Amino acid sequence: MKVAIIGGGPAGLYAAILLKKQRPGADITVYERNRADDTFGFGVVFSDATLDNFEKHDLPSYRRITQEFAYWDDIAVHFRGTVHRVGGNGFCGCSRQKLLLILQERARELGVVLHFEADVDDESRFADADLILLADGINSRFREKYVDHFQPEVDLRTNKFAWMGSTRPLDAFTFIFQETEWGPFIAHAYQYEAGHSTWIFETDPKTFERAGLKGLDETQSAARMAEIFGWFLDDHKLLTNRSMWRNFPMIRSKRWVKDNMVLLGDAKASAHFSIGSGTKLAMEDAIALADAMEKASDIKAALDVYEHGRREEVEKTQHAADVSLVWFEHVDRFWDFDPVQFAFGVMTRSKAITYDNLKLRAPDFVAEVEKSFAKQVRAGGFDVDTEKPAVPLFQPFRLRELEIANRAVMSPMCMYSAKEGVPTDFHLVHYGSRAIGGAGLIFTEMTCVSRDARITPGCAGLWNDEQEAGWRRIVDFVHGNSAAKICLQLGHAGRKGATKLMWDGIDRPLDEGGWDVVSASPLPYFPDSQVPRELDRAGMNAVRDSFVAAAERGERCGFDMLELHCAHGYLLASFISPLTNTRTDEYGGSLENRLRFPLEIFEALRAVWPSHKPMSVRISATDWAEGGITGDDAVAIARAFAEAGVDLVDVSTGQTVRDAQPVYGRMFQTPFSDQVRNEARVATMCVGNITTADQANTILAAGRADLVALGRPHLVDPFFTMRAAAWYGAKDAYCPPQYLPGMDQIFRNSVRDRQDLEELRIKAKPKTRAELKAEATKPLAAE
């Protein structure tokens, strides 16, 4: 077997090592354009989990690597004159040059042939090779040569960064957030060997321009950074090595394999330096390829296994990197945060670390976070304990005169179970049980303002007396048997109306018994959906009046709060999105025009809804489609509603057009809530694949939302919030007197269960390399 590897970085060298171990008789050659001891950048960083993987796959190189590493356990966050140190992280740093030399030496030991200063731009010279690995880096010639095949997407990010080094010793992975006369600068720094540390400087493009960095050479740039961070560098110099300012390219490739050629490492996909995973991804690509080669019957099958088996893990890492880099790009959103809340945001920015696991590894730090959050609640007028505070999820919240006992919300979810719009016994049990279950606030499903405003024949409504009586029965039960507040969500289906029940074919048009539908423009949802009638002024008046009438009925029912549904492609959303609004009158064109009718409806509702009761609006913060609503648009939309008197923005996304391409994942819509809250300066409720109380605490403590809506968890567990209260020891949680014995039991059990789980996690956690190294160097006790 003959293997040619183009690129002698970590991906190419480690792949050569692993493949040669598998096939000692194979002819494996690495071609590297630079010299053997050339390297650009300073240190690389690995987690203990990554080193576990290296140990498993090649013990000799693992041992050499770990002998050279600098170890640390803490992350230190410097912000506005404070330092917060968070332990339990288990990271290791090594010189990139030393790593390459170790891998080169190991490859030679195994019989791999290494050619340096070998600039390869044509793979035809390897026509006799069985396998060609393209590991030629982030600027891969071969990825670009076959761009039509590999189909890479390159997202050049906005922030500027420069990679430098220093002789400044560091005992923690260090983030420094520095305010300057030009704007914020960030330093990501870590020690990788005695007397040497890596320093990556980052700033936004406007600050970069104002600071006069454009056009400066490496020496001049280093001098400017030394001025800004000199207080911390402590007379240690900054070192340069191709340390020019640039923009980070996020690279994704649709295909990784062409014939017998395969992309590895940065040539295939990149991950932002803020999560320190570039070299990790490269070397784990090599592991995945070697594993595939060992298991598959031939090279073609192996490459297929590699590409399809490895992609999910790479995309998960890239998603974490994306979320992290966006946090750093918009660090100004959080600049006025309390320093401890800011530091918590740094730690949890990528979603890899959450409230609970941070509490396990750094309990004192999380205790500080809890106290800081409670102090903010007390400043808002609540008499809460700030010395032994409840966790964020069980802190109260106020909207106008409405006090909500905790931040857990049952999300609005259509049940499609009404009879001619009338809520039934099913609805009484559904809403009543969730209210008794402890949620601070529950939302009704989208309640339609007229018969023709329904999505399906099973949708609930509020346009006649029978429906009003049905809803009053539910509201009275909630108020009489729980501490929960209940919000009425009003909406109009628009072009997504006259469709089947969800379980019969979601959004599919009815076969019979339909009704006429309206929208901002005559665009059907599916090609075979009913073409909606473009709403004219008379139609707008009728819709407005039906909303007002429904709101007045809602007030008579006793609802505590009112929400206007302007999301998910329904009528009002169809006006807001340019993908569904092609009008040429005063209600089309600019965002200001497209908002005109939804704001008119909101203002009409605000005029009849009691002034002491809050109102919210649900928006789609992105359409997840080219040319649609973006996060920046969502900020403008939120500001417009805030000026009209909205108290809370319920931040959802998508469902506007059928060809949308949402990026799913844990808490996948929370970044939009974060942006709206901290740029528009309005309270937000987040929603979207939030499944645990741990995630809710993480979101709240980091200042990404004020309320957390959970949908599917509440579908299967009406007592989700009560269970969470028991788990976190929130003893002030309300429980109906009939259920108090059960509440006492679950609180007692949860104390023991939580202790047992934490002890198991602590015992199961392997020692970090820092701990192992300390034990290995500890002097023997005298006999």
TrEMBL record:
<dbReference type="InterPro" id="IPR002938">
    <property type="entry name" value="FAD-bd"/>
</dbReference>
<dbReference type="InterPro" id="IPR013785">
    <property type="entry name" value="Aldolase_TIM"/>
</dbReference>
<protein>
    <submittedName>
        <fullName>Salicylyl-CoA 5-hydroxylase</fullName>
    </submittedName>
</protein>
<feature type="domain" description="NADH:flavin oxidoreductase/NADH oxidase N-terminal">
    <location>
        <begin position="393"/>
        <end position="725"/>
    </location>
</feature>
<dbReference type="GO" id="GO:0071949">
    <property type="term" value="F:FAD binding"/>
</dbReference>
<dbReference type="Pfam" id="PF00724">
    <property type="entry name" value="Oxidored_FMN"/>
</dbReference>
<dbReference type="GO" id="GO:0050661">
    <property type="term" value="F:NADP binding"/>
</dbReference>
<dbReference type="GO" id="GO:0003959">
    <property type="term" value="F:NADPH dehydrogenase activity"/>
</dbReference>
<dbReference type="InterPro" id="IPR001155">
    <property type="entry name" value="OxRdtase_FMN_N"/>
</dbReference>
<dbReference type="GO" id="GO:0010181">
    <property type="term" value="F:FMN binding"/>
</dbReference>
<dbReference type="InterPro" id="IPR036188">
    <property type="entry name" value="FAD/NAD-bd_sf"/>
</dbReference>
<dbReference type="Pfam" id="PF01494">
    <property type="entry name" value="FAD_binding_3"/>
</dbReference>
<dbReference type="InterPro" id="IPR044152">
    <property type="entry name" value="YqjM-like"/>
</dbReference>
<feature type="domain" description="FAD-binding">
    <location>
        <begin position="2"/>
        <end position="317"/>
    </location>
</feature>
